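hiii so my PI (J.) wants the whole complex modelled not just the main chain, which honestly fair. so below is everything: two entries, each one labled with what it is. i double checked the lines twice but i was tired so who knows lol
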Amino acid sequence: ETGVTQTPRHLVMGMTNKKSLKCEQHLGHNAMYWYKQSAKKPLELMFVYSLEERVENNSVPSRFSPECPNSSHLFLHLHTLQPEDSALYLCASSQDPSGRAYEQYFGPGTRLTVT
Amino acid sequence: KQEVTQIPAALSVPEGENLVLNCSFTDSAIYNLQWFRQDPGKGLTSLLLIQSSQREQTSGRLNASLDKSSGRSTLYIAASQPGDSATYLCAAWGGAGSYQLTFGKGTKLSVIP
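here's the output for the full assembly
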């Protein structure tokens, strides 16, 4: 595997379900990001982990819970979602940008549908 | 708060044409600007990254320019091909120590054979 991978690629879940999205990067980066892409809206940054610590949380509802067990893996735990949470969820990675801004590399995304 | 705007929202051109995609940002204190390509239902592919100290970057048929003072960036695509059809996104970095990459809504490009 190379680059940034995400599983599953597609997910359909009911509002009472609990599921998790997984992201793995094979680039030796130490910062990882979750983005949400809804129809007709710009990509929205949800969470940032740098050096395995959460450094940014952009007012995301608590029904989304991130986890970063190490610098290569990032999870997004989902529970009691709403239909408006249906979107493409993208993971990205980069070198830690605190010293300078580095290029971000994106995974293919998980298409989430909440019924 | 940084806002990024891309015009036009959609563009259709015949194969072989040269074209320019526009990106504007409200806060000129950006650290760099990145252009991406997104194919339908797929993730983003980084095309070019322009550091704030640079004025342009080139990769193959692509050339991106950055004018911080006017808050603008352009992506020039030479000799367009049907395979260039995709949505092109620009994104501005907030600055060193900032983890915020602010995206525009994108320009959907269709290159007609």
